[in-house]
Amino acid sequence: MRVRVKVCGTTSVHDAVLAAEAGADALGFIFAPGSKRRVTPEVARGAGLNVGPVVARVGVFLGQGLDEVLRTAEAARVSTVQLHGPLSALYLSEVARYHPVLRVLRPADLAEPDALEALAQPGVTPMLDAPEPGGGVPLDWAALREVFPPGAWLAGGLGPQNVAQAIRALRPAGVDAVSRLEARPGVKDAAQVQAFVQAAQGATDPSYPQ
């Protein structure tokens, strides 16, 4: 099964096209308050228009009200909504009525019945991330082998040098990276993006260098 690849923290048309041409399946646009990579809906919409419909556009939110999330997602024309932070099952179900949802969890959440129960809703896919998203620190993949949710995405400190190892350890449906793909916060490094996509796509190919 081919692993899908998401390049998050996209802030410009240039970087959106760069990631799409490298073979990324999805782009992440951060709307969370306080993020160094936060963009306006207009920027995200413009970038999305330049990569075409094949590449998914993911809006990333943290702690924002339901109305704000839905208005922003509509204005930005994102195809998927990624949600961080404490959220109720009702909130998730309301967002999932309009958009597929990537629900971000921390490793500690995997021991919480309520968090796992919310994932059973239609249109909601889990993504496991580090306790401090965007911090560049990888998770302990070996410790997660027995509890990693089937069909989940993986984030947290991933880059060209370690993404293949992470994929082989946990077999996620998709992988997501930000900080290790940048020349500086909000600006992508073309070589790192290309290398990340190639390493992720080759991780399950027996002919790809291990």
UniProtKB/TrEMBL annotation:
Domain of life: Bacteria
Classification via PANTHER family: N-(5'-PHOSPHORIBOSYL)ANTHRANILATE ISOMERASE
EC number(s) reported in the record: 5.3.1.24
Keywords from the named record: Amino-acid biosynthesis, Aromatic amino acid biosynthesis, Isomerase, Tryptophan biosynthesis
Family: Belongs to the TrpF family.
Name of this protein: N-(5'-phosphoribosyl)anthranilate isomerase
Reaction(s) the record says it catalyses: N-(5-phospho-beta-D-ribosyl)anthranilate = 1-(2-carboxyphenylamino)-1-deoxy-D-ribulose 5-phosphate
InterPro entries per the UniProt record, alphabetical: Aldolase_TIM (IPR013785), PRAI_dom (IPR001240), RibuloseP-bd_barrel (IPR011060), TrpF_fam (IPR044643)
Pathway: Amino-acid biosynthesis; L-tryptophan biosynthesis; L-tryptophan from chorismate: step 3/5
Residue ranges constituting the N-(5'phosphoribosyl) anthranilate isomerase (PRAI) domain according to the UniProt record: 5-199
One GO term (biological process): L-tryptophan biosynthetic process
EC supergroup of this enzyme: isomerase
Keyword Membrane: no
Name of the gene: trpF
GO function terms (MF aspect): phosphoribosylanthranilate isomerase activity
